[in-house]
Amino acid sequence: MIHEVDDILRGLLTRGAFAGSDVEVVFDAPTRDWAARRNAPTIDAYLYDIREDTTRRQRGAVSVRDERGIAVHQRQPPRWFRLAYLVTAWTKRPQDEHRMLSAVLHTLLPWEILPPEVLTGSLAGLKLSIPLSVSGTHTEARSLADIWSALNGELKPSLDVVITAPLLASPEYRVGPPVTEGLGVQIRGRGGAPDDSPTHYLSPEALAAAKEDFVRRNGTSGAVPEQRK
Length: 229
Hints:
- This protein has helices at residues 2-15, 32-36, 94-108, 121-126, 144-151, 204-218, and strands spanning 24-26, 42-52, 62-65, 71-75, 79-90, 113-114, 130-134, 159-167, 173-174, 183-186, 200-202, 226-228.
- Helix content is 28%, strand content 28%.
- It has 2 domains: 2-174, no CATH class; 183-228, no CATH class.
- It is built from 6 helices and 12 strands.
- It comes from Streptomyces paludis.
- Residues 4-181 form the Pvc16 N-terminal domain.
- InterPro entries: Pvc16_N.
């Protein structure tokens, strides 16, 4: 899932404001040594934090349906994870870096929600839209200054890009065939053997009424209608 989000982010940037340019989009850690080796305009999207968005966690089972709308599998709902990227621009001049960051903003801001058609791999198969935020309120446990300190790098202007993506954590299980008949009842005699009358298929309401009528006419000691599928 993580590498698929990388591909989505790279695709948005390379098809957006940087289409046809010589700007590279990479996912390296922007350390001091790495920065010293850069000799081309670069957008670096460093994945610095991964954590579950517990507010999106769901319980129970989800039905997977075929093209006819019939449930064929069941699985647990996906778990959602927030992938936080530190996006920086690298050139020889700060003014050019600021223009590149501005281009990133113009490219990503329209994509508040990523629809299934722009997703790839397993993310596209889930047919879910995923949210994207740019430079929102910083709520991570680590501050950006701490991140730069851990990287042994110099503090630079950056954009905080967060993509919240689903991950299936459980396999799918097959379900039984769909029910094609209603509930059936057949009357048994006092000797326990069913009579020769055909089985009647009733709705739940009609079945409850038939049981109530049978007990009223025969008493509680008699047999009650038998439910058959």
